[in-house]
Amino acid sequence: MLKKIIASLLFMLPFMLLQGQANYFYPNKGNFDTSIPTPEQFLGYAIGEQHTRHDRIVAYLKELDRLSDKVSFEIIGETFEHRAQVVAIFSSPENHKNLEQIRLQHLSNQLNGTNNKVPLVIHLAYNVHGNEPSSSEAALLTAYYLTASQSEQTKEWLNNMIITLDPVINPDGRDRHTHWANMHKGTPAVADPNDREHNEIWPGGRFNHYWFDLNRDWFLGTFPETRNRINFFHKWRPYVQTDHHEMGTNSTFYFDPGKESSNNPIVPDYLYKNIYPKFGEYFTKAANSIGSMYFTKEAFDKLYPGYGSSYINFYGGAGFLFEQGSSRGHVQETTTIPITFGFTIRNQFTASLATITAALAEKENLIELRKQFYVTAKQQAASSIIKGYRFSDPNDFNRTKAFIDLLLLHRIDIYKVPNSTDYFVPTAQDNYIMVKSIFENQITYKDSTFYDASTWSLIHAYGLPFTEVKSSMVLAEKINTPLVFNNTPIVKSNYAYLVSNTDYNIHQFIYALQNEGVFVQTATRTFNTNINGENMNFGFGSIIISVQQQKVNADELYNIVSNASVAANIKVHTVATGFSNSGIDLGSNYVKTLKKPEAAMIIGNGVAASEAGEIWHLLDQRLHMPITKIDILNFARVRLERYNTLVMVSGAYNFLDKNSVDKIKAWVQDGNTLITIKSGADWAIKNGFTKFKLAVDSTTTKGRLDYDRASDMEGAKALGGSIFSIDLDTTHPIGYGFSKRKVSVYKNNSTFFQNSTSAYNTIAQYTNTPLVGGYLHPNTLKMIKNSPSILVGAEGSGRVILFADEPNFRGTWYGTNKLFLNALFLGSIMTAPGADYSEEVDKH
Ligand SMILES: [Zn+2]
Q1: Burial, 350: exposed, middle or buried (Cβ in 10 Å; 0-12, 13-18, 19+)?
Q2: What average pLDDT score do residues 120-138 get?
């Protein structure tokens, strides 16, 4: 039966092409301008027959711009792999002549929405997850339709709207999947789910170049793709923004309204009451008209401000999510008839036109939404006892700078506090809803099952000391541009240079020196010394660069240190004596020479791509340091001797055979450092790398309950992502550079350690009342409080470091990156407790 259906579908496909694709994708839509090439004519194949490469998508939009005065085309940036990020703008030729004027009128309407003669601005965006490809093909059809359709309705749209269209949010990921699908396509196409076409190789096309999920990045702004897009968003501030996805092959189609219990409580209610249900009527009508099955209301949330379908909700607009059951490939079997790529494209295209129809018809409603949004935001700010947030870390310029960069990206008002190094963000500002999302750690939600994180307070992610200000403040100088480092030239030394390690960029600085062959040392005890007539304290882990103990001469060293200092915005002190006022002297046995990290990470099948990507990105982009990514399938033939540090993030590591496990053990015993994170730590414990033990799960539901309650009950136990406080041992190398013992960490997993039986192994421990923000099931609280968060075990001459949490989460946890980087850079000086000094002095 199935074969018969596939055969008939395949028979129909060429027939469809002969008829032109119009009948399939847009039946009864009237005449088209024949001077505009259809996507099929331009590409040389029918939409749905092939996956379209990103460069061909860009070329088609460029061609429409060339041929039609209804279209303009803009490059807004490029990806890591040098693919252009493009936007096409569709409107009447008349509007196109006055585009900039319309934009400015539209923006000046933001707060009051009085002038409803201004064309309505909406944004259609596609394919954020590269291997959810149907929507970019639908973008081509939408672009063609808006340019070539001669219907009265299309004219009305273009006369009254500015429609901006981003065909591919994630160009690098899309092409990764596009090549996969096209290179494995059979003739005839193979619908069997076992075929290689339907089973992409690790890490898949979902992610961007660094294996990050760009559909979480709208809030975090880690990537240039996102930052360019956010700047375009604020340039236009659309009323509507779409976000098209795909889900499992056996699912149908999803459109809003979503799950009612997970409406974001700080976003004004008007959106949920008056916009989503209303737009849902248009989507319903459109899907019914082509006979497509769908669902609404039962899944997906827009709580988190970092989705493509939610970011706009925090600026007085409406974000819409579409999810299509995936053919993942050109045709694939389902529990009913096989699903074709063309079918998935048609649903996305139909939803695109339905969005445009709804937006124009509901223009008054959307203007009212924006008006209500700003009124409600103002009321919420006025009724808040918090008048603003005051923050900064004067000892960490680069972390403070990064946070301010992010606030500026989101168009948040920031001021300098007079006579202080602090900054102040008032709550009384237009973008209060975003301010609250960035600074508040505990917003109460109705539902306890989260699609993703349950808290996202960025001030905690950046780990910046801050206070909630409850009285009014005098607003001084406004910050409008990124902070610039006050870089006073270093005084040349003939003795030594000293650097505090409190700054975020300290590891970038150290690596730059090590890479030039400079010996860098660290003080494992504190000291106070005279710098230029002034006594200064240096904390645990301060950096010492002696002038004599180098292979380069004093002048060369001076140049290397100066360059590294400028590149990393790091303050370097010149010292003329090794004798300290108090604490250790610079030649002390407590001063250790650091080994340059020669790092490798196991990646590939069964390893968490996004966690590995966080590390790859951190080292590449922020430290300018290479890390070798070893595919797990090649691990057996890799000689580990050339590395001194091996990283294992979350993963099952089933592809490591016994020989490989033994090889890693022997290598650790030889004096090297194994860093394990989350389930990577579970793996190390289960495979006997250390004597530490995992805590036994005590969260099992007891008694008898109805079957349909299971997903809510069990879902509520999952630690989707919450913020906890730990007590950090700041005298241990992993804690170096932290000024306070209490640190916020991000946890989204179920790795829990038992307490260590020896005194000095627990580098960080969750506090007695650990929850800082987010949701936590009471049973999980019992497991987590007072348990270890970071353990270090000395094994032979080496060591195994275990992280229960994710210190590099989504490239945004500036507050805990240092824990991981310390593990990477200082592993070699972590010796068995108590042995670090006595061993050395005994060897006289
Ligand atoms: Zn998706």
Answers
A1: buried
A2: 98
What Rg, from alpha-carbon coordinates, does the chain have?
29
User: Which has the closest alpha carbon to 415: 431, 430, 404?
Assistant: 404
Model pLDDT for residues 424-434, shown as the tens digit of each residue: 999 999 999 99
User: Which pLDDT does position 707 carry in this prediction?
Assistant: 81
H-helix or E-strand spanning residue 71: strand 71-78
**Ligand 1: distance of its center to the CA of 304 in Å?**
15
Please state, in angstroms and rounded to a whole number, the distance separating the CA atoms of residues 522 and 592.
5
**Angle 62-123-223 (CA atoms, 0-180°, nearest 5)?**
80
Q: Residue 696 in 3-state DSSP?
A: coil
State residue 534's pLDDT score: 95
Q: Tell how far the Cα of 164 is from the centroid of ligand 1, in angstroms.
A: 21
Residue-wise pLDDT tens digits, 776-815: 888 889 899 999 999 999 999 999 999 999 999 999 999 9
E strand intervals along 339-461: 339-340, 388-391, 415-416, 423-426
Q: How far is the CA of 698 from the centre of ligand 1 (A)?
A: 33
Between 448 and 1, where is the model more confident? 448
80 CA to centre of ligand 1 in angstroms: 21
Give distance in angstroms: CA of 662 to centre of ligand 1: 39
Sheet holding 722-728, edge to edge: 628-631, 599-603, 645-648, 673-677, 798-803, 788-795, 762-773, 722-728, 742-747
Q: How many CB atoms lie within 10 A of CB 376?
A: 18
CA dihedral 452, 456, 460, 466 (to 10 degrees): -170
721 CA distance to ligand 1 centroid (A)? 19
User: Would the CA dihedral through 787, 608, 668, 818 be positive or negative?
Assistant: negative
Rounded Cα gap, residues 446 and 432, in angstroms: 22
Sign of CA dihedral 105, 110, 115, 119: positive
- pLDDT range class, residue 12, cuts 50, 70, 90: very low
Q: Express each pLDDT in 324-367 by its tens digit.
A: 999 999 999 999 999 999 999 999 999 999 999 999 999 999 99
Q: How far is the CA of 349 from the centre of ligand 1 (A)?
A: 16
Euclidean distance between CA atoms 515 and 509, whole angstroms: 10
pLDDT greater at residue 675 or residue 474:
675
CB of 785 closer than 8 Å to CB of 186: no
Residues 6 or more apart whose CB falls under 8 angstroms from that of 375 comprise none
Element (H, E) at 65: helix 54-67
Determine the distance separating the centroid of ligand 1 and the alpha carbon of 214, expressed in angstroms: 10
Look up residue 817 and give its amino acid.
Answer: N
Q: How far, in Å, is the centroid of ligand 1 from the Cα of 345? A: 15
State in Å: Cα 245 to ligand 1 middle: 4
Distance 608 CA to ligand 1 centre (A): 17
pLDDT tens-digit map of 69-116: 999 999 999 999 999 999 999 999 999 999 999 999 999 887 666 667
Can you spell out the DSSP letters for 742-772?
A: EEEEEE-S---BPPPSSTT-EEEEEEEEEEE
How close are the terminal C-alpha atoms of the chain, in Å?
A: 86
For 449, residues 6+ apart whose C-beta sits below 8 A from its C-beta are 711, 712, 715, 716, 718
Say if CB 71 and CB 64 are below 8 A apart.
yes
Interior CA angle at 357 toward 353 and 358, to 5°?
Answer: 115
Alpha-carbon gap, residue 408 to 106, rounded angstroms:
21
Distance between Cα 170 and ligand 1 center (Å): 11
State the burial class of residue 644 (Cβ atoms within 10 Å of its Cβ: 0-12, 13-18, 19+). buried
| CA of 563 relative to ligand 1 center, distance in Å | 43
Please give the pLDDT value at position 111: 64
- How many CB atoms neighbour CB 480 within 10 A? 8
